[in-house]
Amino acid sequence: MADRTQTLPQTTTALNVHNWRKTVESGLIVGVVSLFIILVGFVSVFAERNIIFNVLSFGQFVTFAAVIIGGYLAGLRSDDEAVGVSGAHGAALGLTAGIMVSTFILLASSTDLSRVLVNATEETLTVIRFGLGAGPGSVVLTTLYMAVAAASALLARVEPHVRRSIIITLVVVLTFGVLEDLIRTLIPRWLARALFAVNGLSLVGTGIMAGITLLGSLAWPTISERTEPVRDWFNEPGREAVKSASTIGMMSILLLAAPWVLGLYLSDVIDNIGLYILMGIGLNIVVGWAGLLDLGQVGFYAIGAYSVALLTSPNSVVAQFLLATFGITLSWWAAVPLAVFFAAMAGVILGIPVLRMRGDYLAIVTLGLSEIIRIFVTSEAFKPILGGPQGILRIPKPSIFGFELDNAQLIYYVVVIGVAITGYVAWRLGESRIGRAWIAMREDQDVAEAMGINIVQYKLLAFAFGALFAGLAGAIFATKLGSVFPGSFQLLISINVLSVIIAGGMGSMPGVFVGALLLVGLPELLREFSEFRQMLYGALLVAMMLLKPDGFIPAPHRRRELQEEENQ
After folding, report:
1. Which residues contact 117 (CB under 8 A, 6 or more apart)?
2. Beta strands 403-404; 399-400: pairing state
3. pLDDT digits (tens, 9 = 90+) for 317-334
């Protein structure tokens, strides 16, 4: 008994020492990340971009971003200790990071480092020193690092509902400050004047946003409880049709009204997201369901776009030939079925040489085939037909009963129809015998073949459907832009589409939508971050691979596997 009593304090002491060691290590990591953020230019670029006018700039905020996250994680890690100890862990982390950044400030203030580190300028140093001298600025920065990290650690120990409400409030205030220019275009002028100052949120606006969001978040459980009888009524047996009709009706109203509420710019962003969803659905069939690593999606995208251009543009020799020989001029609606057919046939033709290839070899070959298509359209030999580097211009817009869909808000409806049709077709395929055959192939081709599945047939079907959906995306892209150029069909598009389905969840239909929103929509909204776009894009993918390697919305079979692993 005495041995057990002695062992318990020893174990507790060892655990405490381990926690403090982890805190110091985390502080060093946070310091390195903070220095990286400063030295890549975030601080200097966004020094004049206010979140709260004359209180907090975005440049200052990013210097604290790593400290906030590190302090919060330190609080979670010390949740078995007293609340005050968690705060001390946060303060220690902030002190460690603050010493590192302060050392840099003192060194850069006494020595010109800008020849080696181009962003270690006096302007950057002034921002992170809060306009003070090197010594006082370092002390203030370290003190603030300690305070912010301690507050973040204490936040991690707050009751979950309150913690969630506080985090939501902070995120909303930050979002409104960063996206000020965009939000101003979406809200009435009187509200914009109430919330925003010349640059960033006003103090009054910050209070209004924080108060409304915090109260709403705290009241949400009560609201949810009060509305529970309504939800129960919809969930009663026999009311499934009413529930489905209500959901479809509300979604339809939202989809129809969206472009007129959001305006031209956001409608154009949604159009781009929709194009990636179309390509993502196609690639999800090939990679996520059939297990065929394909990097040639951009080639079929180009075939769809060029097919529409050749069949409809007055500048195209094909359209001129059709008019002169048969007296017909194809509309966009008439050209689309032909374009997707050509893309599907190209998928089958290009799929035949790679039938026996798997994994990396398949990826390399499909990449090569898509590059062949790109070189083909830029070829001088085919310039009279395909336009060469100058592309094909004057592609007509779709029209309905003589009404031309000539801007992003109207093209939006074409994109929505395309996404709805492809989503439904892909969903039905996934639930069919074909979908089950693809999944069997993905798990083990040899076993699938032994079970009687025709591997050749189903591989070609996967390539055909993947190419067909990419061709439809290309057809819409061509009419949206009104022209096609070879430069619009770079390898990066294939990589981005693959990233979309990896981020969303391989084999997951909802995951394609989420992945497109995150990887296509967010960068479009944050265009003022254009200098750091690819870096942020890469950081998001790395973080996602570490935190959610199966994607944001894993496929149903993968969710079941994860649940079984947790239960074990």
Report:
1. 39, 108
2. antiparallel
3. 999 999 999 999 999 999
Q: Is residue 253 a contact partner of residue 470, using CB atoms and an 8 Å limit?
A: no
User: What separation, in Å, do the N-terminal and C-terminal C-alpha atoms of the chain show?
Assistant: 33
> What's the whole-number mean pLDDT along residues 454-480?
95
For residue 137, what are the contacts with CB-CB under 8 A and spacing of at least 6?
105, 125, 128, 129, 130, 131
Strand partners, 484: 392
- Distances in Å between the Cα of 270 and the Cα atoms of 396, 484, 513 are 21, 20, 11
Residues 6 or more apart whose CB falls under 8 angstroms from that of 246 comprise: 234
Task: Judge whether 354 and 366 are in contact, CB under 8 Å.
Answer: yes
How far is it, in rounded angstroms, from Cα 210 to Cα 174?
A: 10
DSSP class of residue 293 equals -
- Cβ(306)–Cβ(377) under 8 Å? yes
Determine the distance from the C-alpha atom of residue 501 to the mean position of all C-alpha atoms in its chain, rounded to a whole number: 10
CATH number, span 265-567: 1.10.3470
- C-alpha closest to that of 490 among 301, 340, 363, 305: 301
pTM of the complete model = 0.85
Beta bridge partners of 149: none
Domain ranges of the chain: 15-157, 159-220, 265-567
Q: How far is CA 264 from CA 186, 261, 459, 530, 563, in A?
A: 11, 9, 41, 20, 43
User: In the structure encoding, which two tokens stand for residue 254, read together?
Assistant: 């939202």
Evaluate whether 522 touches 478 at the Cβ level (below 8 Å). Answer: no
pLDDT, one tens digit per residue, over 537-561 is: 777 778 777 777 788 888 877 677 6
Most distant CA atoms of the chain, gap in Å = 103
